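testing teh design pipeline on a random one, pls ignore if ur not involved
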C-alpha cells in the first residue's frame, strides 16, 4: 500500500485535525511534512478541495512525495478550473492520458466536472459534491458471502484484459448490465462504480471498455435504467449478431471445402491420366517382350559377357544384386601426375532399388574421413556421386549393367582435387611405392596435419616430406 508525504507548508496541521484527517508527522530529505495513508488520501483531497499536482518517489519504499493544487483557495494556486482530473491513479501509465481525455469528453456531455479515482480493489464511499465521480475497480458494497469473482471474459463483446478478482456487488444504485447479462458496475447518484480493473495492462481493449462504461452511465442518467424490453432488444441484437457470425463462419468453411475438393478432383484427374498412360506403356512393353520371347537368354548372356573387361576378374549374381570384383584400380593425382594405388573392389548393384555400393578389399584409408574406400567413397561404401547419382539408377532400370560397372570403375579411377574429399588422394600409396616408404610418407604428412598445417601434394612439398622422412630414418 502507498503512503503519501505532503510538505508541511501545503496545509496547517491544525486544519488536518479540524477535518479529522489521520496523519503522522514525517521528514523527507530535510523537508518537514506529514504522511497520509492511501485509505485516507481521498478524504484529504475532498476535505480541502484539491487534487494531486505531482507525484514522485522518495528514498523510502512505499512512500510517494506529492504536491497538490487547490481548486478554490489554498497555499497553492489551483489555476483555472479543469473539466476533468485524475485524483488518484493506480494503473498503467500508458492509459492515463486516454482515460483523462475520455473524462473530459464526458464532462462536456454532462456539463459537469469529472473526477477519476482508482482505489485499486478497495471500497469507496460515494461523494456528494459538485463533481461526477468515477471509481475504477471499486464499489460501495462488498460481497459478504466470501464468493469473489474473477470477472467475465468479455463485456459488451470487448475482451477483458485484466480479470483480477473482485468482491464488489450492487448496493442501492442502478446496475450497469452488459449485453452478456453481467452486472459489472453501478451508478449511485453522481458516483459511477466500475467493479473490475480496466486500467491495468495498458491495452486498447481497456480504453474501449472504459469508454463503454461512460456511455452506459450517460444513457442511464439521460434515460434511466434499461428496462426489460430494452434489455430484451439488446440481447436480441446480440443473438442475431451471434447467429450471423456463425452463418458467415460456416459459409466460409463451405467455400474453403469446395475449393479444396475442386483442387483434389483436378489432382485425381491428372493421376488418372498418368495411370492410363502408364497402363498403355506397360501393355506395349508386355507386347514387345512377348514378341521377343525365346531370345532373352541369348541377349542376357551377351550382356553378361560385356561385363568382363581387363579390370574385372569376377561377376556374381545373388538375389537382386550383381557384384563385380575388380583388379587393382589406380587414380592419378592431377597436381603431381602420380598414380596412386586405390585397391581391389567389390562393386555391388541392387537392380531393384538402383543402389550402388563400393567395398575396397585391399585397404581403408583415413583421409577426408576415417576408413574411406577411395577419395570420394565413404566408410559406408556410398559415394558423393554428383551427376552420377541420376545416371546410374536410370541405367540400372534399363538393364544396362555393363555401362553401370564401367562408370563405377571410372569413378574410383578419377578424383576432383578441388573437392574437400578428393583433395586427400595423395594419402593412398603411390604406384610402386614400398610399404615402408608409404608408411613413412604418410606419417610425415600426418605430423604436419597434427601441427595445424594443411599438406599440399605439390612436387616440392612431397620431396620435402620425403626428405624429412629420410632424416628421420638417419
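output:
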Amino acid at each position: 500500500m502507498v503512503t503519501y508525504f505532503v510538505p508541511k507548508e501545503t496545509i496547517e496541521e491544525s486544519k488536518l485535525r479540524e477535518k479529522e484527517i489521520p496523519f503522522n508527522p514525517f521528514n523527507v530529505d530535510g523537508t518537514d511534512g506529514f504522511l497520509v495513508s492511501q485509505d485516507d488520501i481521498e478524504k484529504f483531497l475532498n476535505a480541502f478541495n484539491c487534487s494531486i499536482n505531482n507525484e514522485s518517489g522518495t528514498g523510502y519504499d512505499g512512500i510517494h512525495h506529492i504536491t497538490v493544487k487547490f481548486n478554490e483557495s489554498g497555499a497553492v494556486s489551483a489555476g483555472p478550473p479543469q473539466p476533468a482530473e485524475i485524483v488518484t491513479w493506480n494503473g498503467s501509465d500508458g492509459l492515463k492520458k486516454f482515460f483523462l481525455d475520455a473524462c473530459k469528453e464526458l464532462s462536456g456531455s454532462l456539463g459537469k466536472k469529472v473526477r477519476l479515482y482508482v482505489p485499486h480493489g478497495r471500497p469507496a464511499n460515494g461523494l456528494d459534491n459538485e463533481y461526477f465521480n468515477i471509481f475504477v475497480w471499486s464499489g460501495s458494497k462488498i460481497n459478504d458471502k466470501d464468493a469473489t469473482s474473477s470477472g467475465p471474459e468479455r463485456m459488451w463483446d470487448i475482451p477483458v484484459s485484466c480479470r483480477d478478482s473482485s468482491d464488489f456487488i450492487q448496493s442501492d444504485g442502478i446496475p450497469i448490465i452488459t449485453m452478456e447479462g453481467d452486472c459489472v458496475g453501478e451508478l449511485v447518484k453522481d458516483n459511477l462504480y466500475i467493479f473490475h480493473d480496466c486500467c491495468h495492462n495498458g491495452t486498447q481493449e481497456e480504453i474501449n471498455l472504459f469508454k463503454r462504461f461512460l456511455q452506459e452511465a450517460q444513457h442511464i442518467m439521460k434515460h434511466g435504467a434499461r428496462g426489460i424490453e430494452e434489455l430484451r432488444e439488446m440481447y436480441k441484437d446480440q443473438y442475431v449478431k451471434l447467429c450471423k457470425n456463425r452463418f458467415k463462419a460456416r459459409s466460409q468453411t463451405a467455400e474453403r471445402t469446395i475449393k479444396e475438393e475442386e483442387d483434389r478432383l483436378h489432382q485425381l484427374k491428372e493421376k488418372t491420366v498418368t495411370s492410363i498412360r502408364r497402363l498403355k506403356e506397360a501393355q506395349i512393353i508386355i507386347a514387345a517382350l512377348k514378341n521377343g520371347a525365346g531370345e532373352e537368354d541369348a541377349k542376357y548372356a551377351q550382356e553378361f559377357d560385356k561385363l568382363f573387361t581387363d579390370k574385372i576378374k569376377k561377376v556374381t549374381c545373388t538375389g537382386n544384386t550383381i557384384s563385380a570384383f575388380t583388379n587393382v584400380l589406380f587414380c592419378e593425382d592431377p597436381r603431381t601426375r602420380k598414380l596412386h594405388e586405390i585397391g581391389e573392389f567389390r562393386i555391388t548393384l541392387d537392380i531393384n532399388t538402383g543402389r550402388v555400393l563400393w567395398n575396397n578389399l585391399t585397404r581403408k584409408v583415413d583421409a577426408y574421413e576415417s576408413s574411406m574406400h577411395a577419395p570420394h567413397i565413404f566408410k559406408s561404401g556410398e559415394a558423393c556421386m554428383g551427376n552420377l547419382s541420376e545416371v546410374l539408377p536410370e541405367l540400372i532400370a534399363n538393364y544396362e549393367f555393363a555401362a553401370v560397372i564401367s562408370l563405377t570403375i571410372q569413378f574410383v579411377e578419377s578424383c576432383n582435387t578441388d573437392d574437400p574429399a578428393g583433395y586427400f588422394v595423395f594419402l593412398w600409396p603411390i604406384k610402386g611405392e614400398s610399404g615402408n616408404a608409404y608408411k613413412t610418407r604418410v606419417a610425415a604428412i600426418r605430423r604436419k596435419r597434427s601441427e595445424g598445417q594443411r599438406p599440399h601434394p605439390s612436387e616440392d612439398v612431397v620431396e620435402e616430406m620425403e626428405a624429412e622422412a629420410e632424416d628421420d630414418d638417419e
